[in-house]
Amino acid sequence: MLAIDQQESLQQQWHSLPEDKISYLLNTDLENGLSNEEAVRRKSEYGLNQLTAKKGKPAWLKFILQFNQPLLIILLSAGAIKAIIGEWLNAGVIWGVTTTNAIISFVQESKAEGAIAALASAVKTEATVIRDGKKLRISSEELVPGDLVLLTSGDKVPADLRLIKIRDLQIDESALTGESVAVEKEIHEILLPPETPLAERDNMAYAGGFVTFGQGTGVVIATGNNTETGKISQLLDQRVHLTTPLTRKFNQFSQNWLFFVLFMATLTFAIGLGQRSFNDAVEAAVALIVGAIPEGLPAVITVTLAVGVNRMASRNAIVRKMPAVETLGGATVICSDKTGTLTENQMTVQGILAGGLPFTIAGRGYNPDGKIMLNQQPVDLKKNPTLEECLKAGLLCNDSHLEQKNGSWVVVGDPTEGALISAAAKAGMIQQAIEKLYPRLDSIPFESQFQYMATLHKNRTGNVVYIKGSAESILQRCTSALDAEGTETSVNHELIEQRVNDLAKNGLRVLAFAKKSVPITQETVDHPDIETGLIFIGLQGMIDPPRPEAIAAVHACQGAGIQVKMITGDHITTAQAIARRMGFRKNKKVIAYTGVQLAEMSNSQLANAVEEGSVFARVAPEQKLRIVEALQSKGEIVAMTGDGVNDAPALKQADIGIAMGSGTEVAKEASDMILTDDNFASIESAVEEGRSVYKNLLKAICFILPVNGGESMTILISTLLGRELPILSLQILWLNMLNSITMTVPLSFEPKSAGVMKRPPRPVNEPFLTVNRIKRILAISLYNWTLIFGMFEWVRQAPWGSIELARTMAIQSLVMGRIFYLLSISQLVPSLVAKFNGSKEKVSGAPALAAGIVVAVILQIIFANSEFINNVFKTAPMNLDQWLICLGVSLPMIAIATFVNRFDPPN
């Protein structure tokens, strides 16, 4: 028996080895299986057939890590300094602010990744094995390498198997390989080469696949983490959780701002020591720290993202990780899986050739609603007997049927046969009724070496054999054909082969249909009976068609400057055909690469190929991951969609992973967002919301930072001039937390601005603070400083003024100026102007904005006129004249805001 490391080194070659070699390497009997004693020994060596998960961080550690942010660390330090000098109230308030921020972040943090656990459930099942020559039913966890496993229709493949016996075996491997059609398995006399792609190793069965038809026997060659599904779990385990563009930019901004704040606080403290007492110098330094740090910004960002999450949920996009809201809005590339994402994941007949006439079929999926058309006109089946005969052949030479579940039609059996049943139903032919008229007597099941299936049916005038299969296998057996009137005539092989090629170029899978009359006494059928003398009936071409709404969504994304690329495990011809239908064109061409081609490329060649190409077919999970990484190395913000196990590593690596609601649990757990309606079109809506969220975040930043700038300038200049501080650290906390959050949260509810999807994605490396935004913040900060410092000095020197009243009126003037500034950057004023000019559009953002302003005013009244607040925050009551003075000095903000809005438009 091979050692574990030797088995792993051979894992890529099992499909290329003969059966006797496999038996020798695994030390197993291919007839009687392992002995029970040997199975127990191997289980102790290899362990259970299950995937091992990596433990997540404990909850207490996750909470502690919420404080591991530069701005919060400096605030904690400021609180500690206040505590050391005995000002416990100030210290408590500062610590309360930081703890509140940490709690908000902890609550909103995504649940620990459960991808590995989901993978484990994906492969856990029961298995039928042969041990000591006896058939046993055991848990799949008990399987070991060398076990002999029996498969039958409906089974889930419990481990990676090398098939040694099959009977019409078909396995759905779409979750692993991306193939939209069940794979017909074969036992090759000529062994496959070692480099054969995963999807073409048809003498193998992989853990997690479903047997849709037939039977088979295979020997276990890999269990647990050594299976192909296990490899994906390792890829998921190895991925470092990437930060999003939003968090990267915010972290960079925080670091830069931290260094600036520390420098200014140190300078303020040093100057203060030369002019005032130690405690006063500390108060000035702490006040500058508290004033310069935007304490409310993390909470506002959280609220803004949460609003975006709720809006996306109403548009069928469930966000699992909040920063993904903004990330999607900045996406420059969307990499989409094909099967079930861009397409229906339901085979559909779209073209029929019968009696030399080309018919087209409307309708989607297995739904029987639709029409058969000739020259864009509905056909009368009675006037097209050959078409009727072609549809009848598809119904009778068929082992599947359709069922309606939860309002949708699904196929029980082979998807290709389901498409044939649906096509006939669109012409009014009911499978059960036709089968009753032509009862089946015998059949020849599909076999790969013959490439056809045949069924014998009882008929009143004589029994009839219907045959379906590949055009090559059927045409060579045909000696005549039916014309448009149903009359037997000579067969034109060249014309039919040309039509087959035409259908194939459009990505359609083509089946040919024929029949043969036999004596009424013949009740069995065998291969020699249909070797020759067949009558050609027609062709049916089918495809897993693209969703119409997905086509529109692709065009919309491209119009918004977002590249859309298809990454699939399907055939390159089929993928290119779907891409052409959906408009995946670059310079009027669909540039496509296969997984084999990608594997031969260096990293630099791959980076160029992923930029140039729009279709990547027959790719392995590792290659999907490599494609995403190559795009990211080019500076792209990558969104990846998918629904299968094979998509999970790429979903996790992408800047935002988008899973389908009907996809595997593995894909959902690895993703940042889930589309509940499985509709690529919902991505367009999500991108639109994401862009709006980012715009609202910028408004929030440009609203909050000027207050911090004005406060910092006030503290620094007052210290330099040796003046009393116009604003204290506790008063700054009031402004930065309660007042800022109350007035900034309404910006989170701002609706999308016009033309948001007609603009290109924002530059990938665009910082939070562009040159124009810095100019805006400096201009407003300067005016805020003027308000605070000017009002404080004026009231302080007035005969009726006191230092507490001076500080109170300075703060109230600042808040009133903020209200005017808030109105200038919101969409409320432009909406009111448009309404006044006759627009029928709803006034945008009015309720939230009005509520925020009203609450802010009430808080400021309490701030000035509550005795308790006066004692805690050292403020003083104000009379009506004083309120009006504050209002008057804040009015110039209207002109200043109008000026800055010209070079830095807020919407």
From TrEMBL:
Subcellular location: Membrane
Name of the protein in its database record: HAD-IC family P-type ATPase
Signal sequence annotation: none
Listed PANTHER family: P-TYPE ATPASE (PTHR43294:SF20), SODIUM/POTASSIUM-TRANSPORTING ATPASE SUBUNIT ALPHA (PTHR43294)
Alphabetical list of SUPFAM superfamilies matching this protein: Calcium ATPase, transduction domain A, Calcium ATPase, transmembrane domain M, HAD-like, Metal cation-transporting ATPase, ATP-binding domain N
Keyword Phosphoprotein applies: no
Alphabetical list of SMART domains matching this protein: Cation_ATPase_N
Transmembrane segments: 257-278, 284-307, 700-721, 727-749, 815-833, 845-862, 882-900
Gene3D superfamilies: Calcium-transporting ATPase, cytoplasmic domain N, Calcium-transporting ATPase, cytoplasmic transduction domain A, Calcium-transporting ATPase, transmembrane domain, HAD superfamily/HAD-like
Lineage: Bacteria, Bacillati, Cyanobacteriota, Cyanophyceae, Oscillatoriophycideae
